[in-house]
Amino acid sequence: MTRRNAMRLHRGELSGTRTPVVTPRGSSGRLAVLGIVSACLVALVWLATTQSVIGQQVADMILYGRVASDPAILGAATDALTTVSLAFVAVATLGLLSLAIARGGFGLAAAVFVLLGGANLTAQLLKQVLERPDLLAGAAYATGNSFPSGHVAIVSSLALASVLVVPRRVRTFVAILGAALIATVGVSTMIAGWHRLADVEGAIFISLAWASFVTAILVYARGWMPRRTWGHGLGGPMMRLVGAAGTTAVVAGTIGIVVIAVDPSPLAELLAANTVAPRTFAAALAVAAGTSLIGCAGYVWALRGVAFEIPR
User: Fold this and answer.
1) What three-state secondary structure class fits 307?
2) Bridge partner list, 21
3) E strands along 145-252, which residues?
4) Which sign does the torsion angle of CA 164, 166, 172, 178 carry?
5) Contacts of 278 (CB under 8 A, 6+ apart)
6) Fewer CB in a 10 Å sphere around the end CB: N or C, the chain?
7) pTM of the entire structure?
8) Which of 88, 155, 92, 79 is nearest to 120 (CA)?
């Protein structure tokens, strides 16, 4: 070991293959960048979909397309949303806090608490203070602000908090389950007509921003990595596959929305062509699901193999 590496050891009294190495410059930097990008995307999504006629027109055309949804699918979506209840949130939060205390003490539990509280309070605050001007001359699917989705903020913050507290060896598995849960709830809010695509995207990015910033501080303060996993921790081939699948879905869905829905014609005329809105809705579902996959994969990538439990 070089003198430089020796100076970077944390809790130097430990020895062996589990000698921890602090990684503030690596993982903290990646997480901070991810948080900044996510926060910027929140603002970009809101501005692009609310402050211009074409943005509002595309956003509302997506929801008009859901009218063609199968009743059975609509029922399944509604059932999925009803599971995100106060009891579900309370049990999940208590479970995560208990696991955090058991594995990493009160420091890790505090990080989970700030992540969950910050993400969901931010979502509710933005929902109250942001305004959506009516630029569609009465043709809007619904008036008033719905950005961001509270349901999606809840499940995405819980999913990212779960990735944070579980052991490193199961992070990939938990991230995949979390992405599936976020996608299910996000898609369900759109199928049920509760939220626009932008509302789903905004909630995911808000949670990802809070998770990234909180984790960046936690990594810098107490993160470490066993020598044998130094330079690893990207989640393996499975996580890369998840990220690639999410990217493909987002790119394909975005192209579909642009090609199908971006049209200067009045919304009423576009809706008269019965095939336009349903196709736009299908493309939007792909974007929502893909963003869920990318968000969880990006968080695992930024976190790498950093551990927070007390090394033994």
Assistant:
1) strand
2) 9, 225
3) 225-226
4) negative
5) 65, 68
6) C
7) 0.89
8) 155
